[in-house]
Amino acid sequence: MRSSLSSLLLVSGALLSANCLAQNIDRNIEEGLFVIDPEHSSITFTGSQENNEFEGAFSEFNAVISLSPSQNKITANVKTGSVSSNNQDRDTLLIGEDWFNINIWPEASFSSTSIQQTEEGNYIANGDLTIRDITQAVELAFSLTPSKKSPYPRFIGDMKVRRLDFNVGKGDWIDTRWVANPVSIHIDLQLVPAPPMAASPE
Q1: How far is CA 102 from CA 83, 173, 199, in A?
Q2: CA dist list (Å): 199 to 35, 64, 107, 151, 187
Q3: What whole-number distance in Å separates Cα of residue 155 and Cα of residue 138?
Q4: If phi over 0 gives left and psi between -120 and 50 gives alpha, with beta otherwise, what is residue 183?
Q5: How far is it, in rounded angstroms, from Cα 112 to Cα 138?
Q6: Helices (H), the chain
Q7: What pLDDT, in 10s, does the model give residues 164-183?
Q8: Entry pTM
Q9: Confidence of residue 199 (pLDDT cuts 50, 70, 90)
């Protein structure tokens, strides 16, 4: 009898916890609080080396996105040591002292300061981008589009930066005849509801 009661309490507790979890997730959906599904998200970039275009990507990053009437906010962090451009020599340089210098600055970050809707489903986020020890104001154009693999939307964004504004590429690499200054960044994120314990972006 005591064993049966204990089992019943355990089952009841599990159901209650599951119900609370579902309610908290539903609340996050209603409040527009999302994180990303890293398996179905990507951050890529395009640069130019000696007038030859090349592409690269970061494999480790996270983001919290709040898109509610009361608060619109995007925060993201990228581990710069996860960079890959399909060229081992170039990748070794990218993580080194003259470029990202990951031993001192292992992450880049973005925090929006304002988000404005330009038309249905399209937005402009102004914010602060920090790479190495330099923070610059940037503009991120993005859209929220239906996903073919999820009931939740995809976040598709593009940003253009100048690498020298962040001291990325020092020494001989300051010469833009070797590596061009402009870099295009493409962001493709599969949004999912934030877990119950996820903190809202500040």
Answers
A1: 10, 17, 27
A2: 10, 9, 20, 23, 22
A3: 18
A4: beta
A5: 9
A6: 2-30, 88-94
A7: 999 999 999 999 999 999 99
A8: 0.82
A9: low
